[in-house]
């Protein structure tokens, strides 16, 4: 009796395992057959950053609009400008950071102006090294 139960469960276990493997293999086959068709239908336009004209890349990165600043700033736009300038410095966009710091020097309070001046001095010191 016990051997009959074991044999029955073994057959069920093997059939479920083989069925699962067949479904898995069918899925992989369909995935790899459909992939080349998608690539032909919608080719990916791979443009490396080296291929973008310098003038277009620089002009695009130096454009700041007031709506961009208002969208992320909340109440204190000058403090956000300082944070943005720091972020631009970290990403290597010193020219854009200098423009923002000039704005902070004109519009900010004494503390913000002092911080902007400190950051500008750090930029000048790092550019001379």
Can you walk me through this structure?
By secondary structure, this protein is an all-alpha fold. Helix content is 80%, strand content 0%. Helix 4 (77-90) runs antiparallel to helix 5 and helix 4 packs parallel to helix 6 (110-128).
Descriptors:
129 residues; Methane Monooxygenase Hydroxylase, Chain G, domain 1; 2 domains; 6 helices
Write the layout of secondary structure elements.
Layout: H1 2-41, H2 54-61, H3 66-73, H4 77-90, H5 94-107, H6 110-128
Helix pairs in contact: 3-4, 4-5, 4-6, 5-6
| Total strands | 0
Give the ordered list of helices and strands: HHHHHH
Structural class: mainly alpha
CATH architecture of the largest domain: Up-down Bundle
Main pleated sheet: none
Total domain count: 2
**Rg from C-alpha positions?**
31 Å
With helices defined by DSSP (H or I, 4 residues minimum), what is the helix count?
6
Q: Give me the oligomer status.
A: single chain
Shape: rod-shaped
CATH class of the largest domain: Mainly Alpha
Mean pLDDT: 78
How much of the residues is beta strand, in percent?
A: under 5%
N- and C-termini, Cα separation: 87 Å
Helix content: over 70%
**Low-confidence stretches at least 5 residues in length (pLDDT < 50)?**
none
CATH topology of the largest domain: Methane Monooxygenase Hydroxylase, Chain G, domain 1
Quick recap:
This protein has 6 helices and no strands.
